[in-house]
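Section: Multi-chain targets

For targets with more than one molecule, the full set of components is provided together so that the structure can be written out for the assembly as a whole rather than chain by chain. Components appear in the order listed by the source. The example entry contains two components.
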Amino acid sequence: MSCIVDFEPIGRRVVAEEGETILQVAQRGGIGLAAVCGGAGTCGRCRVQVMTGALSRATDSERARIGPDQLAEGMRLACRAVVLGDLKVNVPPSSLTTSQRTQVEGRALDVPFDPPVRTYEMELARAGRDDLRSDATRLCEQVQARGLDCTSIDLSAAQRLPVLLRTHDWRVTTAVARGRVVAVLPPGNPPLGIAVDLGTTKVAGYLVDLTTGKMLAAEGMMNPQIAYGEDVMARLTHAVQNEGGADRLQEVIVAGLNELACTLCAKASQSPVDIVEAVIVGNTAMHHLLLGLPTEQLGSAPYVAALSDPCDVMARDIGLTCVPDASIHVLPNIAGFVGADHVAMLLGSGIHNAGDVVMGLDIGTNTEVALKVGDRLLTCSTASGPAFEGAHIQAGMRAAPGAIERVWINEERVAYQIIGDVLPVGLCGSGILDAVGQLRKIGVLSKTGAMSREHPRTRQGARGPEFLIVPGSESGNEHDIVLTRADVSEIQLAKGAMRAGAEVLMEEAGITVNELDRIVIAGAFGFYIDVRNALRVGMFPPLRPEQFEQVGNAAGVGARLALISAEQRALAGEIAKRAEYVELTNDVRFTMKFAEATLMP
Amino acid sequence: MSCIVDFEPIGRRVVAEEGETILQVAQRGGIGLAAVCGGAGTCGRCRVQVMTGALSRATDSERARIGPDQLAEGMRLACRAVVLGDLKVNVPPSSLTTSQRTQVEGRALDVPFDPPVRTYEMELARAGRDDLRSDATRLCEQVQARGLDCTSIDLSAAQRLPVLLRTHDWRVTTAVARGRVVAVLPPGNPPLGIAVDLGTTKVAGYLVDLTTGKMLAAEGMMNPQIAYGEDVMARLTHAVQNEGGADRLQEVIVAGLNELACTLCAKASQSPVDIVEAVIVGNTAMHHLLLGLPTEQLGSAPYVAALSDPCDVMARDIGLTCVPDASIHVLPNIAGFVGADHVAMLLGSGIHNAGDVVMGLDIGTNTEVALKVGDRLLTCSTASGPAFEGAHIQAGMRAAPGAIERVWINEERVAYQIIGDVLPVGLCGSGILDAVGQLRKIGVLSKTGAMSREHPRTRQGARGPEFLIVPGSESGNEHDIVLTRADVSEIQLAKGAMRAGAEVLMEEAGITVNELDRIVIAGAFGFYIDVRNALRVGMFPPLRPEQFEQVGNAAGVGARLALISAEQRALAGEIAKRAEYVELTNDVRFTMKFAEATLMP
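Its structure, encoded as tokens over all components, is:
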């Protein structure tokens, strides 16, 4: 039997079948419900409040994660609650994945403009009785006459050429790559390129004029795959364990990229038809899901990629209907968990050819660490988990409006800064890190993370000690925003993993922290954090704050470099080949260092 | 209002809208109704007999082409008669294009087996903790270890590889072309190739084992585009003048090729999934319609192709869903009306590197003529028209069951041979040619085609003199099968055009008929004709009958050669470059010779 489910305050109505979970209905309706665990009932992030209607009885897993008062108010886990009739469901902001802060900017590097796709404005000899060459031959020979290698033409360009020539007086803008005419455009239209940093959580896109290298627009969006699991492993699980799961994940990200391309063009008053090339970088899992490559072998030991070399595919072959005839260049992966996004980060930050000893960290649910020492470039990946995305944290949330992104605590009071002009809803990653760092600074937290009860805001919570950040009376919420001892443990585990990875790389390279000249922190989260608080929790090797560089989206910068410079694109290939991947799973050094790295200085 | 149209004796029921013509309804229903003129009401080939139901009144064009008796019996032109209610329509065999004799065989040439797609049976090292290479890298490096150039892999192969490796104990059949892995197959499966000769009327397909070069199956079919016009110009007109016309023509031929590929595989107990490459040859118009290239500039002076160079496209890019990941190699065109099929014919017949002076003719609605003299290879195209396909001939029909394919006439009697074990229905091309040749031999026809009344079978028909081949009393038809003076004129025009083309090429090359060593006749029609009768009507330069070679489908042979030999494929490219195209339109020599060539010796 069909039922109607109304989602509020979004105001979306979705037809459901009796027996579906609310999460399934929400996913089908394109509602960005957070599902960190991929719908396994374990993360507790997909809470919704059922206002009216018939549902299955609360499961044990829901009782374990939702208090009796909240259950009484209709709070449920969307992934467990089964629809039995028409429903009205309220989705709290903290359960939504959309309208969050995305970071698209990065520190730009200056490289000579030398795009792999070259553009020429051509005027061709007219066809006539004494010149019966085909249109394609006519064009290729004219390109060759400029001393260029050009022996063939893409079918889509050959299809467009005859009408273009005859409606524009035999003039045409010609895009040539790899010895081939890849596109023809009306005279005067610049060929466009897009660079995309395809993250597990966030996607950043850049529109570039390929005749000048100038960036015309930038735009960020959430990865719509989030509805099927918030971290890499949850996505891979969804892809492998659900029939058609991989196809669905490919469909939603492709739909997202189609939308991104259109939005970028609209912003710059350009047409997607003129996009001739895209460079896409993502971690190995995002790369595989986008290209429709199998992921089963990627999700289980020894975590092997199907494809790691750079490759060029036609956009239409992965369903990018907005730009069907564009070619997509995908940068190489280094290993199963060190992907093209890390290659792009190294390229975009310049770490790969730095003259000093430098460490680079790209912090996310997986954190990739790189270390450049002399000629060596070491990399590893650590599963830092989604704690910095607000998951597994009692009052945690993503960096969306209402999130507390900055916290200052002294012996008496607490000050904070909120994203957006709204009342506080919860703590996002940088806020959580601040809170832990500040509490360690004033001694409320010990090295091991034990919470002293001496501060007036410390109290005994339902599951142990907790620190009151914002009382409900102040936020207008029914509940207080707190940081619990368990939350502190989550942060210790997350930062411990990345710190241990950093330590293993230094040991592998045979250097000590004193020999490290600087640390580059890439990514959105890394851009917003307070390095001093990060140092207080021991997240990074103890350099002085001024030795840190927060470069923002360096992977996006790297993708742009590979779009506008053949040399940089080739360099990306070399970086992937050159990088020494250090596998941390079952590495005894990592296990040892990890335990130590969970402690705070 | 919707009506039901029943087509008999085919037994097909099609839903029609009031106001549609019967031809439109038949086309939609996939009924191969002959429409030589593309539905312009001028060829008179789409006669159908309406048994019951309401139609528009007969048009002038129908009155001009159908006698009053036949009109009274419900005979109409399907392209003119408009449906006004439910109908029962009888389609006479002579109006059908289907179930006709197709010629797929050709004289084979022996070339070394050296396919552009090479096959390797590989066993790969297993992935493990100490060997984390991606599957694609693992495979490419193993191919390189055999001393081969292989730097990349097609996306579709990369998608298939991980599961194949893990279900077949790390063994895999690998197909490599152009320095790239283009396909991976289960171990032991031979990669397959198909060669297709895509004619305006007939399509011939061949399935080849690419590990041995052995032909596994051959199959012929009619080009389903026939329903939209029987000759090249009618098709181009349909493509240009009807909205979506070109798309429709592409769709029907692609559907036909999908079916052909499946039929070939079924015949050889193989799977289309294992087809990795196809070589397709066709005239320039068929080439353009298949590839979705624009045809407007091809259909009007100066008749310029959009694309003439050889090209490789992915089958999925033209909708060949049966073999989506196969690559299609399309041989080059020489000019707007001398296509890749002629290149393949020259390759398949060996004319291109013959040591003697040889002329080649590929007879069809367009006849291509080639002349090899020393180092020169001259080509031209003549519009010989569809008379040899039975069109514009009173009792003409295609080479289908019931067609008279051989005729012997002496002073007293007429003997004939029929295709199939059925009563005679009409005359197909070779039968018509025989009849004209025999009548010229016994003097019933003069040099100019005038018909003497002295033979007992000569009589005055409705539109002039005619010769009785089969009386209705003998055939069981209501009408006699005759050859009219007008039919003889059609043959004179058709053969005159190709003969004049042959003469121009000889003049261009500076040779006389005495210097010609032999004439190669390619194509299905050319295979079945009696050369002596063809010489009696003056169709060819007057060599002795033993100087003629009837090689059958040489274009199909050429396509197969390009599939199994990289050298032959390269030769095809050279032939197209080397061939000197002689444009006959507005050539004064042609006009002069044409008038003379319409005469009979």
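Chain B has 17 helices and 27 strands.
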